[in-house]
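Table S7 (text form). Paired inputs.
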Amino acid sequence: MDVDEPVLSGFTIFPNPVNKILQIKSPVEIEKIEIFNIQGALVDKKLNQNFINVEKLKAGIYILKIYTGNTLIVKKIIVN
């Protein structure tokens, strides 16, 4: 998978830190979203959505992986 600069230029996640719903704005279709805890365990996964509910997650730092076509975008998020 490649990091595609045009995709990254129109890509945003908000709010961060997040309490309930994390929104993802992307110029291309999002195929899959995965959230991993700091130990690397997968804690949530969604298909074909541009948001994810994090209410059930404990407060802390998580890694967000967003798959769009053949591009993988990795971001750090903070759950309050």
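Next pair, protein 2 of 2.
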Amino acid sequence: MQVPVQMTPNLLIQGGALLRPLTGDAHRTDMRIRGGVITEIGHDPVCSGEYVLDIKGCMVHFNP
């Protein structure tokens, strides 16, 4: 089920391993999602009122 953008909460996803399938590289990082779109990838972004999801030990598959 696809969630409409206006209902998608802003999220800060912390501690996951980001996997890039074309290169096989994986590294731990944080991601910010706003309106259903990844807007920031990096370490320790400042929380600005969004939901925080701790995914340490999980892998995120990134395929642009």
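Strands lie at 11-20, 25-34, 37-42, 51-54, 59-61.
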